[in-house]
Design brief:
Blueprint: E1 12-13, E2 16-17, E3 29-30, H1 36-39, H2 50-54, E4 68-69, E5 78-79, E6 83-84, E7 95-96, H3 103-116, H4 125-138, H5 143-146, H6 150-155
Antiparallel strand pairs: 1-7, 2-6, 3-5, 4-5
């Protein structure tokens, strides 16, 4: 399919980062102490982090921060950073053919990355969708698409296909074991 549509479709690629924080840290870390640089590097399985892209945690409309968790009785939020791997990942990086002039090159790289994918860790679907929502709506790497004239944007369709080779990470409400 990638070969068949390589001249007409701009493909993207992402793999899951099921590591909740980073090596040497507890599974949850207070938001004020969280090391986004470590989470976005090898120690954290190259997490894509909207917080690292923007420089600090991003507040939602309700005042909570993306990636933050509030536990009953706690006075401060905790943070986890799972979801998709970032563009810097050595294996399974986030790739998007945002520049139409380089679409074929990116499509070729997607094929190479697909051949190297192997199941590892959990499958954090919710946090992956959160990462991708931010990526397409606010990340500087997708700014070229957001600058297109409205008439052209309305004809474009974004299709997301998620494949979950592992089991659920259990980092969701109502998780049953």
């Amino acid at each position: 399919m990638l070969d068949l549509y390589r001249d007409r479709v701009r493909f993207g690629f992402a793999t899951y980062d099921g590591w909740d924080t980073y090596m040497g840290a507890t599974p949850t870390v207070e938001l004020s102490q969280f090391q986004f640089g470590m989470s976005g590097g090898l120690q954290g399985s190259w997490s894509y982090s909207p917080m690292a892209v923007s420089g600090w945690p991003i507040a939602r409309a309700d005042g909570r921060f993306i990636g933050s968790l509030w536990y009953p009785g706690c006075t401060s939020p905790y943070c986890i950073d799972s979801g998709v791997r970032g563009p810097e990942a050595e294996q399974g990086p986030l790739l998007i053919a945002s520049d139409p002039a380089r679409a074929q090159e990116t499509n070729d790289r997607v094929q190479v990355e697909l051949r190297g994918v192997r199941p590892y860790g959990g499958t954090p679907i919710a946090s992956s969708l959160d990462d991708l929502y931010y990526f397409f709506k606010s990340d500087p790497d997708t700014a070229i698409d957001r600058r297109l004239p409205e008439s052209r944007l309305s004809r474009r369709r974004l299709r997301l296909r998620a494949f979950a080779p592992g089991r659920s990470a259990g980092l969701r409400r109502g998780s049953r074991r």
